[in-house]
Amino acid sequence: MFRNQYDTDVTTWSPAGRLFQVEYAMEAVKQGSAAIGLRSKTHIVLGCVNKANSELSSHQKKIFKVDDHIGVAIAGLTADGRVLSRYMRNECINYSFTYESPLPVGRLVVQLADKAQVCTQRSWKRPYGVGLLVAGLDESGAHLYYNCPSGNYFEYQAFAIGSRSQAAKTYLERRFKNFSDSSRDNLVKDALMAIRETLQGETLKSSICTVAVVGVGEPFHILDQETVQQMIDAFEIVGEQEGPAAEPDAAAAAAAGQEAAAADQGGSTEEGVAPMDI
Amino acid sequence: MPKQQANWSPYDNNGGSCVAIAGADYCVIAADTRMSTGYNILTRDYSKICKLADKCVMASSGFQADVKALQKHLAARHLIYQHQHNKQMSCPAMAQLLSNTLYYKRFFPYYSFNVLGGLDNEGKGCVFTYDAVGSYEKVGYSSQGSGSTLIMPFLDNQLKSPSPLLLPVQDAVTPLAEAEAVDLVKTVFASASERDIYTGDKLEIVVINADGIRREYMDLRKD
């Protein structure tokens, strides 16, 4: 990243029409440990890599239950993620209280995005340094959204964020066409395979990853370690992984972005086009 | 100009009675299902019992609109608790929360007369009884509502709860077996329905024990 005279303030535009503070916030997301999400017509699976600072400490919680029908996986500043999860939980509770029905996922992500946008337009605030993969089930079906610090949000069939997420994304891009009709167990298997891709040769064990599922007739819950380990063993996912994928190095914002902040001058958008909802 | 008086009241009394009895490893909570206003019946089939947590159930009589609002409020607070603590609220914790919630509206109260029943952290039955503004006490058994004046003396007679003035301090929990407690509740409501016009139609009984929560119904007089 380059230091320049336009990156001190979030409310300062660069001559090229970029808000560097927002882009730096997106960079924070890329530094966090990986989180992936994928969905079928009836289920959504979230997975993340657990990184602990040292052997002595426990790992940070990166997957949060927001409501029975919504969960979120985060990458980046986990403190910011925790605060946003609390906001999401509150919004769901208030909506349920007023309307006696679950908050539609699309409404929640818009509120989240607007909240993030505010922080990109106030001189006394800073953008949230966390990317959120929001998985939710409502009347219109299963949804997976990605909310970024810029205030943009996109819907995905499958996506990965955080460090070494490109490896997972490559795997998902190869297989996403099958996800729609996939069974729940196969979806979890694909999630574990995608997580394995980000580990760069490290053995996949249930102690270094977390998996959560939400689906029709299945409220959002995090799978316990034994179940995950059984699935890893059953699918024989433990193994070597081929060469690590190239990582994006530029200041570009999220893939397939339409708004101003993501102009692709200067750095190349290595992220590529992420699979969109069909 | 003489002082103006209100020509309407924000409250109404929908009648009905509630009872709860605590046992060594169970708790019985019961309420009739009649909802009335004045001398009229609104419905014969309205539940006054609400499950607040895994091992905690509340029965409330009084103004059912306030009761409903109170139940929703507590349910929302319980969700928040679960998110923060990763576990269900215990019955004593819910009891304190209910008290605080009621007192919060000390100067425009919930017109709701509650009994809270469930199992505490050790699996023993517990019953908490409230007034409309949150004063509460852990007891072995209690009744609230329009029939409580008829029911309570009968329960006192049958359950021989030790006086709190006696030493050594004895547990408030009843020595009855679960089946006997359920029978007692049925008897008590049958009697109350005879003399209290607001109690009747159907009796809803909820029993909480180590196996979970079970629901039972019994017909009462419909007049």
UniProtKB/TrEMBL annotation, chain A:
Q: Which family does it belong to?
A: Belongs to the peptidase T1A family.
Name of the featured protein: Proteasome subunit alpha type
Q: Which PANTHER family match?
A: PROTEASOME SUBUNIT ALPHA/BETA
Which Pfam families does this chain map to?
A: Proteasome, Proteasome_A_N
Tell me where in this chain the Proteasome alpha-type subunits domain is found.
6-28
InterPro entries associated with the record = Ntn_hydrolases_N, Proteasome_alpha, Proteasome_alpha-type, Proteasome_alpha1, Proteasome_asu_N, Proteasome_sua/b
Recorded source organism is Hibiscus sabdariffa (roselle)
Quaternary structure, per UniProt, is: The 20S proteasome core is composed of 28 subunits that are arranged in four stacked rings, resulting in a barrel-shaped structure. The two end rings are each formed by seven alpha subunits, and the two central rings are each formed by seven beta subunits.
Q: Where is this region: Disordered?
A: 243-278
Where in the sequence does UniProt note compositional bias of the Low complexity kind?
Answer: 243-267
Per its database record, what is this protein's job? The proteasome is a multicatalytic proteinase complex which is characterized by its ability to cleave peptides with Arg, Phe, Tyr, Leu, and Glu adjacent to the leaving group at neutral or slightly basic pH.
From TrEMBL, chain B:
Kinase among keywords: no
What keywords does the record list, in alphabetical order? Cytoplasm, Nucleus, Proteasome
Q: Does the keyword Plastid apply?
A: no
Query: Where does this one sit in the cell?
Result: Cytoplasm; Nucleus
Q: Name one Pfam family in it.
A: Proteasome
- Primary location class: cytoplasm
**Superkingdom classification of source:** Eukaryota
Entry's Gene3D superfamilies?
A: Glutamine Phosphoribosylpyrophosphate, subunit 1, domain 1
Q: Which PANTHER family match?
A: METALLOPROTEASE TLDD (PTHR32194), PROTEASOME SUBUNIT BETA TYPE-1 (PTHR32194:SF2)
The entry describes its oligomerization and partners as: Component of the proteasome complex. Component of the 20S core complex of the 26S proteasome. The 26S proteasome is composed of a core protease (CP), known as the 20S proteasome, capped at one or both ends by the 19S regulatory particle (RP/PA700). The 20S proteasome core is composed of 28 subunits that are arranged in four stacked rings, resulting in a barrel-shaped structure. The two end rings are each formed by seven alpha subunits, and the two central rings are each formed by seven beta subunits. The catalytic chamber with the active sites is on the inside of the barrel.
**Family to which this protein belongs:** Belongs to the peptidase T1B family.
This chain belongs to the protein called Proteasome subunit beta
What is the organism of origin for this protein?
Hibiscus sabdariffa
